[in-house]
Specification:
Layout (H helix, E strand, L loop, with lengths): L1 H18 L4 H11 L3 H16 L9 E2 L13 E2 L2 E9 L3 E10 L2 E10 L7 H12 L9 E6 L5 E6 L3 E3 H7 L4 H20 L2 E2 L8 E4 L4 E3 L6 E2 L5 H4 L10 H4 L6 H17 L11 H10 L5 H4 L8 H4 L2 H9 L11 H12 L11 H11 L5 H5 L1 H14 L4 H11 L3 H13 L11 H15 L4 H17 L3 H13 L7 H17 L3 H16 L6 H6 L1 H12 L1 H19 L4 H16 L3 H18 L5 H16 L3 H19 L3 H16 L3 H19 L4 H16 L3 H19 L4 H16 L3 H17 L8 H15 L1
Antiparallel strand pairs: 1-3, 2-3, 3-4, 4-5, 5-7, 6-7, 8-10, 9-12, 10-11
Helix pairs in contact: 1-3, 1-10, 6-9, 6-14, 9-13, 13-14, 17-28, 17-30, 18-21, 20-21, 21-22, 21-23, 22-23, 23-24, 24-26, 26-27, 27-28, 28-29, 28-30, 29-30, 30-31, 31-32, 32-33, 32-34, 33-34, 34-35, 34-36, 35-36, 36-37, 36-38, 37-38
Length: 810
């Protein structure tokens, strides 16, 4: 397929060059005579038409003019209330002058823009820009000051003059770090979003049109080819765009939407973070330029980041790579819907929350959970056995399988009416709103019930729409938003909903109720849905099977793990029968069953379940996936709990390698490798443990901070290894760092500090200071006892310590 496209573009390139210098009639005759493929002919005609409309095809709209270059207006020319000072920029359509206003003692500098004399055919675009700017009053958009007609008959507009640098030059001059660059970009998104909510698409966003003043405030310029949603002038403006920043639909003459600006913002963000554009088009002939833009996928920003670049490669890997590449996707519907959604994902990254661009992979959610809630997983990273329990509980509570995510995406595309309604929802949400940012949740809240009510006379469409909107709420973990919408639909006797649709929506409501902590309400809704499906189990076999995991979670809340396990065992049989053993859904249910067995203390059964889950991943060639990685980590936990340190080390080493290859350095990788070091230490190989732990400490500090529980845990493991090697001065130094970090994180009355007391007791004992060691052991025990349940998992550590001290004394 790629070979066919390459051949086609070669034809386009050669034919375009051959016809370029002919007159229009000669071109068409020659084109017809060649007998080329219709698609090739259409591409060549489109490119030649663009040249006919504007000789400066693909020329940047306004380029800075040399200080000595004369314009069509000499200095001192009066235009309305303004006096021309000098030419400051010139492009394919217009000229921009610095001018000043002198009337009634009022002095003001403005950027005066006029259509070039030789570009009179572009008057409609000029008038369009003036009309659009008149409706855009925002601090991030250079405002329209005045307008009129010059003495020579050309229309002009006077805009706010911005004294500043383009966004790239400003960031470089001020040596902005990654966070500062992202927040500066956030101002751009805010201004673009304001335009989007007024139904205006800029269509020519690029660094030259984004200036930053001396106070660090962004201004958008040049709405010369801006577009009102619903207008159709793509043929006229295609020739004026800038190819490096243009979206594929602009180059192909497709439909322009707010996602078109998102693509340009993605290019600007790429350049802001990397120092270069995703594509290098300079010097290429036009067909080759278009071919590269339309067919080549950009490399991730981290792949092109240089050591001396604006942002380190390691800082770009992961979230920022995913966010930029989502903004640059070829298909408009696969990008962010607008600037607000793009910025919302960047803001999530800055807050260390999961970003939309990376989906809902369980391993990734856990990594983000650790980064945001460092204190909450303190116990889990200090002792590996406690980490195993914490991971099991977290995975149990946060089970959103790939199947469930796929179902949400499928539901969003069920009917054309639903898709159109959702587009309308986001397009019109900003009408009449203030200039504040509008999040996706706010748009959903403002529009969900209104759209659901809009289709009261179309029950099936209304049901599809409510189901889709409810799924969106659940996808965003907004259960308080989902419940009233779903409950209102089910309780509406006039909804006309079919029994099948009520069952589908009832299960969504059951999940939302359970997530809100109301297992009784969840059970009621789930029972009603399953009763309907069980009336015709062959027809509704798939939704019945799909409901088992929710059923198991409800039963866990009602009766505890044994009942939940029985349901998961039944679900496994049903999955095997329906999907077959070698199916990803079966692998997922095996993993869930293993987690439940482990939480219930059935370690051998958990071991078998994880082994079987991994075997399915191997059979499917799915070993390099997030689901497989989760299974490996769980399986290693079970091996550790069985005291099979050799197998635990092998499994965790495999999982660590896979995580690094899939996601790169991260907090989760540091936690996994820290646990690997703990296993090696427990196996009696302190020197090997130190080799494992020393590079991990730097990673933990980079991704979770100097005082995080993870950093403290790795320092504590290093202290233990140094004591075992009798390197007591080094152990003392590391212990001081661990105590300081633990104290800064949670004070002196929490688990982290208690573990430090135990390590200090061992160190004092190794130094021959046994009386101090005993006092420190008592202090550790006192802290853990005062913590109640939180300290209970560490009672064995206190017993082990006291046993060591007593044995030495004996």
């Amino acid at each position: 397929m790629a070979s066919d496209r390459n051949t086609q573009w070669a034809e386009v390139n050669a034919l375009f060059d051959r016809l370029l210098d002919l007159l229009p009639d000669q071109r068409e005759a020659q084109l017809h005579a060649t007998g080329v493929d219709r698609d090739v002919a259409m591409q060549v005609r489109a490119m030649l038409a663009a040249l006919d409309v504007e000789p400066a095809f693909l020329e940047p709209s306004i380029a800075p003019a040399p200080p000595t270059e004369p314009g069509s207006l000499p200095a001192g020319t009066r235009i309305g209330a303004f006096v021309v000072d000098r030419l400051v920029g010139r492009g394919g359509m217009g000229e921009v002058y610095l001018a000043h206003r002198e009337d009634a003692g009022f002095a003001q500098h403005v950027a005066l823009k006029l259509v070039r004399v030789e570009a009179a055919a572009r008057l409609p675009q000029f008038e369009n820009e003036r009309r659009i700017l008149a409706g855009l009053e925002h601090p991030g958009i250079a405002r329209l000051v005045d307008g009129g007609v010059a003495p020579d008959g050309r229309p002009y507009m006077a805009m706010e003059f911005v004294e500043g640098q383009d966004i790239l030059a400003f960031a470089q001059a001020h040596r902005l770090d990654a966070e500062a660059r992202l927040r500066l970009f956030g101002q751009v998104c805010e201004a673009v979003d304001f335009a989007h909510r007024r139904l205006v698409v800029h269509r020519d966003l690029k660094p030259a049109n984004i200036l930053v003043d001396g106070e660090g405030r962004v201004r958008l310029l040049d709405f010369g080819i801006a577009h009102l949603l619903g207008d159709d002038d793509s043929a006229q403006t295609q020739a004026l765009l800038t190819p490096d920043y243009a979206a594929p639909e602009q180059l192909e003459g497709g439909t322009i939407t707010t996602a078109t600006d998102v693509h340009a913002l993605g290019v600007v963000l790429y350049e802001l973070l990397v120092g270069q554009r995703p594509w290098t088009l300079a010097g290429l002939p036009l067909p080759a330029s278009l071919k590269r833009r339309l067919e080549a996928d950009p490399a991730p920003p981290s792949a092109r980041a240089a050591d001396a670049g604006p942002v380190p490669k390691s800082r770009l890997q992961g979230d920022l790579d995913a966010i930029v590449l989502k903004a640059l996707r070829r298909e408009p519907e696969q990008r962010y819907t607008g600037a607000a959604q793009l910025w919302e994902d960047i803001a999530r990254h800055l807050r260390r929350e999961p970003v939309q661009a990376r989906g809902d992979a369980r391993g990734y959610r856990f990594r983000r959970f650790m980064a945001r809630h460092r204190w909450g997983v303190a116990a889990g990273v200090v002792v590996f056995a406690a980490l195993a329990i914490g991971l099991a509980g977290m995975a149990w509570q946060a089970r959103k399988t790939a199947l469930e995510r796929d179902q949400v995406l499928q539901e969003m595309a069920r009917t054309e009416a639903v898709k159109n309604s959702l587009l309308l929802m986001f397009r019109t949400a900003g009408e009449g709103a203030s200039g504040d940012d509008t999040t996706a949740k706010q748009v959903l809240d403002q529009s969900a019930q209104r759209l659901a009510d809009q289709y009261r006379d179309q029950p099936e469409t209304r049901g599809e729409l409510v189901e889709t909107l409810g799924s969106l709420y659940l996808y965003m973990n907004d259960y308080d938003g989902a419940v009233p919408l779903l409950r209102g639909y089910l309780d509406d006797k006039a909804s006309g909903a079919s029994a099948g649709k009520r069952a589908d929506i009832g299960v969504l409501l059951a999940e939302a109720e359970l997530r809100r902590g109301d297992a009784v309400a969840a059970r009621k809704r789930l029972d009603a849905a399953q009763a309907f499906w069980n009336a015709d189990p062959e027809r509704y076999r798939k939704p019945l099977i799909g409901s088992r995991q929710l059923q198991a979670q409800v039963e866990k809340e009602e009766s505890g793990l044994p009942a939940s396990i029985r349901t998961l065992q039944q679900a496994l049989l049903e999955h095997d029968a329906y999907f077959g053993r070698n199916n990803i859904e079966t692998a997922n249910i095996l993993n869930s069953l293993g987690i439940a067995y482990q939480a219930n203390g059935d370690i051998d059964k958990a071991d078998a379940a994880f082994r079987d889950s991994w075997a399915v991943h191997e059979a499917l060639g799915n070993e390099r996936s997030a689901a497989a990685l989760l299974t490996l980590g769980n399986w290693a936990t079970v091996a550790y709990r069985k005291q099979d340190l050799k197998r635990a080390e092998e499994l965790l080493a495999h999982a660590s390698t896979l995580r690094r290859e899939l996601y790169g350095p991260s907090a989760a990788l540091a936690a996994m490798q820290g646990n690997l070091g703990k296993i090696v230490l427990r196996a009696g190989r302190p020197r090997d443990a130190l080799t494992q732990l020393e590079p991990v400490l730097a990673m933990a500090r980079q991704y979770t901070g100097e005082h995080s529980p993870l950093t403290v845990a790795i320092l504590q493991s290093q202290v233990e290894a140094k004591i075992a090697l009798r390197d007591l001065p080094a152990a003392e130094t590391l212990l001081v760092q661990a105590k300081d970090a633990a104290r800064a994180n949670s004070g002196e009355t929490q688990v982290l500090f208690a573990i430090c007391m135990g390590l200090e007791a061992r160190l004092r004992h190794a130094q021959g200071r046994d009386a101090e060691a005993g006092q420190l052991a008592d202090r550790m025990a006192g802290i853990l006892h005062a913590l109640g349940e939180a300290g209970a998992p560490y009672a064995s550590e206190v017993q082990r310590l006291r046993g060591e001290l007593a044995g030495a004394a004996g």
